[in-house]
Amino acid sequence: MNKAAFLTALAGTLVFASAPPALAETFDAAAAVDAQYERTARVARQLWEWSEVGYQETRSSELLQAELAANGFAVTSGVADIPTAFVAEYGSGGPVIAILGEFDALPGISQSDAPRRETVAGRHAGHACGHNLFGAGSLTAAIAIRQWLETTGTPGRIRFYGTPAEEGGSGKVYMTRAGLFDDADFAIHWHADDENSAAAKTSLANRSAKFRFHGRSAHAAGAPEQGRSALDGVEAMNMMVNMMREHTTMDARIHYVITEGGTAPNVIPDFAEVFYYVRHSDPAEVEAMWKRLEAAAEGAAMGTGTRVEWEVIHGNNPLLVNQALARMMDAKLRQVGGVEYTAQERAWAEELASSLGEAARPLDVAEQIQPYETSLGYGSTDVGDVSWATPTVGVRTATWVPGTAAHSWQSAAASGTTIGYKGAQVAAKAMTLAAIELFTNPDLRQQARAEFEAARGENYEYRSLLGDRDPPLDFRK
């Protein structure tokens, strides 16, 4: 689906059927989530303390599995050939509704829960994208939905997917490729943010790889003619790719980091590595740019007398937005409302906001629900691949101080506080209400499925942007 087709919003409004009165009166979804606040906070804080990076989230995965097993879920571990991936299910018959749960941290972020920059000795990763909250909030929603299924006797299954390595590892892509979502009727996810929104926002497709150059070492002063610098290969590639930016379309995003380039200036490095990301709203454009990236690598190696090889690490398809589900989720989020700060939380937020400069926004934004709209987002997520396997809907809540950017020390700090936990509770309530709506509203299910099939097209076949490679379990080591 191209960008123009995506940005053509569906006209009209949707009417949502309510749950049968007998069911609606027997269960208070918001109260069920509120009753679990202590668990949400405890799990979120523990995941935050561990801050385990992609495919290394052993303790984080085990904690979530243990909580689900203790609440009546049947847990299957190590799915899709990923030790930290799992699926946990409760119920029988009826629709199968998936709740996605992430729990990986970002490398290179060290931060306490203070409202000022404060690194922590020995901590080399942090939850600067709020995945500790993601996992904990989704856990709470899954348990609340399980309670609703049990209380009302409604046929159906709630299935929690423990999805590792979203940050550059594409854990959900391998799970999608393994067919784990093939029998799921719908998928629900959420994400940490600095505002509350259920807007229909898609994402960019992306692909990444580590380009490894091999040269020949020699004394940089005594015998430079005998050496061939692998770092020269990396820098030559980077120069050509930077010139390529002038000749790409508007949605293109290319970024890189040199992960290894030698250790001493007087030793010509025989190995160097650069890690590249390429993004675009159209997967075909990602693949087209990728061919040019590979050509630049080969040209750089040829010109510097080095050798290059590369390993694709991850690749994500763009989110396939489902308007029927998105409008429903927007209604549920408005029913729940935003995040309200205590006086202590407001003082903490004000101190942190002073570090945001011009990006700072009024703190009251955390209480508001943003207008519903259809737009193109410039991030990337492996939820995109899930959304092409089954109709998918998401929500974002104000877990961070308004104006905070993801992947920052400020987001890492807030993700370890009650501000973050409250945002996770808002998300859990919205997801719980959305799942109940899907279980009890066959008209909505039919409408969402019809939109999904039409968007994918009659002859759709799933194609992963990372090919047939095995999960890169050591890419963060």
From TrEMBL:
<dbReference type="InterPro" id="IPR011650">
    <property type="entry name" value="Peptidase_M20_dimer"/>
</dbReference>
<feature type="signal peptide">
    <location>
        <begin position="1"/>
        <end position="24"/>
    </location>
</feature>
<feature type="domain" description="Peptidase M20 dimerisation">
    <location>
        <begin position="208"/>
        <end position="299"/>
    </location>
</feature>
<dbReference type="InterPro" id="IPR017145">
    <property type="entry name" value="Aminobenzoyl-glu_utiliz_pB"/>
</dbReference>
<dbReference type="InterPro" id="IPR002933">
    <property type="entry name" value="Peptidase_M20"/>
</dbReference>
<dbReference type="Pfam" id="PF01546">
    <property type="entry name" value="Peptidase_M20"/>
</dbReference>
<keyword id="KW-0732">Signal</keyword>
<keyword id="KW-0378">Hydrolase</keyword>
<dbReference type="InterPro" id="IPR017439">
    <property type="entry name" value="Amidohydrolase"/>
</dbReference>
<dbReference type="InterPro" id="IPR036264">
    <property type="entry name" value="Bact_exopeptidase_dim_dom"/>
</dbReference>
<dbReference type="Pfam" id="PF07687">
    <property type="entry name" value="M20_dimer"/>
</dbReference>
<dbReference type="InterPro" id="IPR052030">
    <property type="entry name" value="Peptidase_M20/M20A_hydrolases"/>
</dbReference>
<protein>
    <submittedName>
        <fullName>Amidohydrolase</fullName>
    </submittedName>
</protein>
